[in-house]
Backbone:
């Protein structure tokens, strides 16, 4: 255990200024291992530094009132564990508990989802397990294109972030054979795309609902997708065994798939985050429920 005797001999206000140059996680650790530094570690002057400079305007923009706190640390902890709905419920805001960096979650209503306003293809519904008033549920499409945008200036400056698509799969049909393309980059700048399967590895595919349901208003308008030929299956098997991303199950019961990483260098940049399958749109897709795109500081 490190020796904090030298630091504890300093005046409390001086100690607080030094601790403010560390991180929330460091301050919490120091307060636990050194009783003499506990008071300084609870100082409002420290935790005010860990809160973003515009936190008051962000809180004021939320339609939901927050509790009154007697300390800045109490407010910081609340914002880490209780995301605030903002922008008429289209986004949520929180803080990363380790660093104090800003986190944003763009709800499905804040995304550009091709044909999302066409009831024939998508429907908007509410789920009790979602933080947002509405999520987007895919009825059926062949062409899938989901795009999220955020201005870099809304996020913490000079910070590495990772973006994730957060979703559920009520039916995997159309997602198991071909991976989707995912990418993150600055708007107007060409970016590299990666491949990702939305279906968790080892999860069986359910087809009964698709096979029994009538598609759309007229069966003549659509061609029912059949599983790929033997050649296609061999290609799919080869692709599945390559280095392609798979989703992870979150603590809240949703899945997340990493879209990519970016660095907030220029506050005027717009960051675009996308997931699409448009090149070989021959497979019917259904059952995807999109909660949104979450943006969190990269760990490590």
Residues:
């Amino acid at each position: 255990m490190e020796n904090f005797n030298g630091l504890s001999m300093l005046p409390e206000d001086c100690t607080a200024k030094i601790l403010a140059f560390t991180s929330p996680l460091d301050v919490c650790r120091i307060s636990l291992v050194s009783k003499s530094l506990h008071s300084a570690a609870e100082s409002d002057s420290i935790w005010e530094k860990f809160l973003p400079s515009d936190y008051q305007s962000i809180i004021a923009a939320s339609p939901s009132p927050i509790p009154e706190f007697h300390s800045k640390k109490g407010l910081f902890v609340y914002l880490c564990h209780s995301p605030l709905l903002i922008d008429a419920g289209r986004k949520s805001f929180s803080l990363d508990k380790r660093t104090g960096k800003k986190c944003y979650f763009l709800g499905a209503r804040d995304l550009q989802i091709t044909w999302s306003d066409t009831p024939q293809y998508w429907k908007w519904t509410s789920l009790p397990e979602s933080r947002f008033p509405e999520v987007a549920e895919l009825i059926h499409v062949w062409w899938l294109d989901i795009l999220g945008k955020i201005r870099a200036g809304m996020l913490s400056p000079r910070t590495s972030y990772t973006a994730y698509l957060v979703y559920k799969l009520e039916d995997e049909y159309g997602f198991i054979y071909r991976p989707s393309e995912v990418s993150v980059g600055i708007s107007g700048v060409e970016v590299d795309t990666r491949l990702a399967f939305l279906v968790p590895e080892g999860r069986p595919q359910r087809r009964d609902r698709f096979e029994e349901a009538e598609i759309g208003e007229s069966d003549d308008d659509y061609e029912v997708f059949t599983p790929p030929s033997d050649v296609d299956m061999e290609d799919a098997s080869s692709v599945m065994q390559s280095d392609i991303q798979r989703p992870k199950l979150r603590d809240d019961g949703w899945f997340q798939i990493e879209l990519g990483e970016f660095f907030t260098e220029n506050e005027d940049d717009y960051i675009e985050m996308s997931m699409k399958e448009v090149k070989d749109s021959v497979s019917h897709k259904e059952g995807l429920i999109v909660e949104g795109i979450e943006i969190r500081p990269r760990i490590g």
Summary: The longest strand covers residues 160-169.
